[in-house]
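Incident review: delayed structure delivery

Summary: a single-chain prediction request sat in the queue longer than the usual turnaround. Root cause was a stuck worker, restarted by the on-call engineer. No data loss occurred. The affected request and its eventual output are reproduced below so the record is complete for anyone auditing the incident later.

Affected input:
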Amino acid sequence: MIKNKVFTFKSIAVVYTMAMLFFACSDDYERVGEEAKKNLYPQGVAENYKLVYTEAKEVLSSEEVSKSNKIAVLTGEISEDFENLSFPHRTFPKGIRVEFFDKDGNKSVILSDYAIIYSGTSVIDLQGNVVIEMQDGKRLETTQLYYDQHNEWIFTQERFKYSDERDGTLIHGMGMDFNRDFTILNAHKTGDGYKIIKDKEIDG
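Output delivered after worker restart:
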């Protein structure tokens, strides 16, 4: 009986030692490629997400109430909350729609297939088929666009297609930035394009 007990204790010791060696080797193993990726799961998922951005017409004290202007409305079918991470953010895997309003209430719209809102920097990263339909009928198409909420500035470093059906303008280029009201547009590098010149413009 004593021999059996000794054998049992030795067996347990061997198994325990092998397990410790296994975990030690696992911890030192350098993962690469797909193995290096960590699975991240949101702490919350919201459906039919809607966020309204407003600004007060004047500076208010803590007890004052005043009418505010609606400057933007962001909506998404699905929103995933990763605000608990060291670099907090919120993702929109099924895309978003952002409506911008100028001081006269005219609306421009940005659509994208995917988006990330970085809470720490207040930057919105729009990806995929990004389309801007401006309040004056102009249209911009690109694959990635950033909206800096603090500076109220929108920009892209990717290729873009800019068109205006009213005057027949079509421009392809690389990189563009503009203000929230889309009244200032700066194209960084333009390529091919054209503009239809009407008879009245020639005669004038």
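Verification: The longest strand covers residues 68-82.
Action items: add queue-age alerting; document worker restart procedure.
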